């Protein structure tokens, strides 16, 4: 991304979230620039989801500041909610409603007018429009969840581990969907613990552990920095990975019933 | 400066409408809300003590007498035929109230009564002795009786068992919907993260609660109407003032629902998951269901218990709805019961407000 357009879409300053004595988020600061895909990486329990949910106005910070699209999330909570798209780590939808009903319901909650079929089409779900959410496969659920982030035409989209539990075909497909969202000009913030995903998708990354951000940079910068310390992989890297082999053998076609 | 919170009418209606749709697709809601109360009504309506009749066994040889024809004309008495030995066996088994044996040769008759049900035996005895006295007089040729008994029927309401039972079923259905659906509904929304996803939209917590409440009011109305309709069509349930009584029943159902929902909210706050909801709702619903006038009048309970049972929330509701359906009084006559419900709902909503957590 070009240097001059570095306006912050999300600005996090000295954010702390404590649960009793445990600091789930321990004084972190970072910025996400407009138009980039920003990844937050870390093992389970690192504080990724907590950070994301505070920015999404779903949790209150213990201390610190977050600005989303220039708005303080504590002072302008309602405005922030209507400017962001949110995908939670798991479901979040009435299992007994159809996809069209769910889209209409969320459109009413965001107080916007939508064309549910057009949205489903964008995510190749139009033949599932009358299916109940609970009848979808894992990949379809994640795609639908992604689709709902666009209902209110947000500027910034938060995705919490969108590909966890998907098969390689599902994951590759979802990456494409995320790239499409990015192409619409939206800023995307994504958490993951798959390094490959981070490398393929993200413009910049923050690596978190134990509630702290230990590194921020582009994937290349982070790798180069490691190499500079003299680090070398034990084995010579081949020009393809096992995943390439797998996808080459089984094809990229989505496997969904 | 905080930004103003957005208009909540649209979200409110969306939550009520889609919450209702989802709820009606849930088999448990439909079963406990509609099928369960109807099953009770049909079970007790058909097999219940409504036709608590006196059955008297009369062997074939006694069926040509005038006594037999007089007894068979009496309403509420059913006559069983059979050999004397068979009838006696049924009497000892408690299946018959009495057996009337005509002694061969003489005109004397012998009445065997069951010890099992003293009250019914008494009734059977007075019926038979009345019939025999009348026969004796006519056989003796006495026409001008010194004392004439004239019985005048006062236009009393025919009080059927369904008239007692059905209002109790409405009470039960409303209580179960208010407590179970509210508690399970909120826990379900938390567990499926629907609540969290909704909170990511510009929708307020109160909007969600009120919207859910509206969906429940509609379910409760449907339940009440289904129960009343089944009662009227199948069992001839008495609607004293017709449509007006139905309106009062509906009004009372909404009041009851709103009052009982406080308990559901309280449980949703205390419970951590669905498993802990079950015992809590059972504690609130089932004891009341059993004692607070659903199946039998509270007056049938031991006197020492009655004052405590009478102040239960469901007892207030049942008392109010029965006054309206069986006594035909207007809503102002049930003011004390409504006050009782109000007191309980204040307690419940305060408890709910203290325990309620969104997460």
Protein described:
Chain A: This is ABC transporter ATP-binding protein. Chain A: One of its GO terms (molecular function) is ATP hydrolysis activity. The complex is a heterodimer of chains A (257) and B (359). Chain A has one domain (3-250): Rossmann fold (3-Layer(aba) Sandwich). Chain A contains 9 helices and 10 strands. Chain A has helices spanning 48-55, 77-83, 99-110, 116-122, 138-148, 168-183, 195-201, 219-228, 242-250; strands at residues 8-19, 22-33, 37-41, 63-68, 71-72, 84-87, 156-160, 187-192, 204-209, 212-217. A 6-stranded mixed β-sheet of chain A has the order 6-7-8-3-9-10, sandwiched between helices. In chain A, strands 2-1-4-5 form a 4-stranded antiparallel β-sheet, covered by helices on one side. The longest helix of chain A is centred in the C-terminal third of the chain and has 16 residues, at 168-183. Chain B has 2 domains: 9-48 and 159-355, no CATH class; 52-139, 3-Layer(aba) Sandwich (D-Maltodextrin-Binding Protein, domain 2). A 4-stranded mixed β-sheet of chain B has the order 2-1-3-4, with helices on both faces. The longest helix of chain B has 31 residues, at 161-191. The two termini of chain B are 27 Å apart.
């Amino acid at each position: 991304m070009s240097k001059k357009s570095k306006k912050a879409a999300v600005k996090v300053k000295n954010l702390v979230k404590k649960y009793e004595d445990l600091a789930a988020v321990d004084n972190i600061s970072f910025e996400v620039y407009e138009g980039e895909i920003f990844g937050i990486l870390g093992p389970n329990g690192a504080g990724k989801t907590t950070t994301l949910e505070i920015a999404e106005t779903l949790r209150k910070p213990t201390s610190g500041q977050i600005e989303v699209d220039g708005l303080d999330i504590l002072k302008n909570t309602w405005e922030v909610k209507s400017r962001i798209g949110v995908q939670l780590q798991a479901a979040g939808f009435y299992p007994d409603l159809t996809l069209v009903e769910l889209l209409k319901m969320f459109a009413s909650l965001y107080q916007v007018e939508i064309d549910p079929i057009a949205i489903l089409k964008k995510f190749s779900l139009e033949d599932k429009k009358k299916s109940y959410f609970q009848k979808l496969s894992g990949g379809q659920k994640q795609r639908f969840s992604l689709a709902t982030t666009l209902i209110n035409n947000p500027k910034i989209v938060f995705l919490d581990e969108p590909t966890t539990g998907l098969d390689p075909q599902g994951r590759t497909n979802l990456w494409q969907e995320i790239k499409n969202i990015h192409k619409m000009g939206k800023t995307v913030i994504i958490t993951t613990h798959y390094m490959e995903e981070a490398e393929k998708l993200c413009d910049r990354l923050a690596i978190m552990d134990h509630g702290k951000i230990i590194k921020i940079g582009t994937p290349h910068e982070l790798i180069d920095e490691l190499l500079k310390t003299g680090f070398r992989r034990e084995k010579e890297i081949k020009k393809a990975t096992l995943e390439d082999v797998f996808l080459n053998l089984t094809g990229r076609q989505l496997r969904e019933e | 400066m905080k930004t103003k919170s957005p208009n909540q009418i649209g979200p409110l209606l969306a939550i009520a409408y889609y919450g209702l749709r989802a709820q009606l697709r849930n088999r448990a809601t439909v079963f406990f809300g509609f099928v369960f109360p109807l099953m009770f009504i049909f079970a007790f309506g058909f097999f219940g003590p409504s036709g608590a009749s006196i059955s008297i066994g009369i062997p074939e040889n006694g069926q040509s007498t005038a006594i037999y024809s007089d007894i068979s004309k009496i309403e509420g008495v059913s006559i069983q035929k059979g050999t004397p030995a068979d009838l006696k066996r049924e009497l000892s088994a408690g299946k018959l109230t009495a057996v009337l044996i005509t002694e061969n040769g003489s005109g004397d008759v012998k009445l065997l009564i069951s010890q099992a049900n003293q009250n019914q035996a008494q009734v059977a005895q007075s019926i038979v002795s009345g019939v025999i006295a009348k026969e004796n007089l006519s056989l003796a040729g006495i026409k001008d009786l010194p004392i004439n008994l004239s019985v005048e029927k006062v236009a009393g309401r025919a009080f059927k068992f369904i008239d007692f039972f059905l209002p109790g079923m409405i009470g039960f259905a409303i209580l179960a919907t208010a407590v179970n659906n509210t508690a399970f509904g909120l826990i379900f929304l938390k567990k499926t993260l629907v609540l969290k996803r909704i909170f990511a939209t510009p929708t307020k917590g109160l909007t969600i609660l009120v919207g859910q409440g509206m969906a429940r009011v509609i379910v409760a109305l449907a339940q009440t109407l289904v129960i009343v309709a089944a009662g009227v069509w199948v069992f001839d349930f008495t609607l004293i003032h017709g449509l007006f009584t139905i309106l009062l029943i509906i009004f009372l159902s909404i009041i009851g629902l709103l009052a009982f929902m406080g308990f559901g909210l309280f449980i949703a706050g205390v419970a951590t998951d669905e498993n802990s909801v079950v015992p809590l709702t059972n504690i609130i619903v089932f004891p009341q269901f059993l004692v607070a006038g659903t199946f039998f009048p509270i007056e049938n309970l031991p006197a020492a218990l009655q004052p405590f049972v009478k102040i239960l929330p469901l007892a207030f509701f049942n008392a109010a709805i029965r006054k309206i359906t069986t006594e035909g009084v207007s809503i102002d006559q049930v003011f004390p019961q409504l006050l009782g419900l109000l007191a309980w709902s204040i307690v419940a909503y305060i408890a709910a407000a203290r325990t309620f957590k969104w997460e």
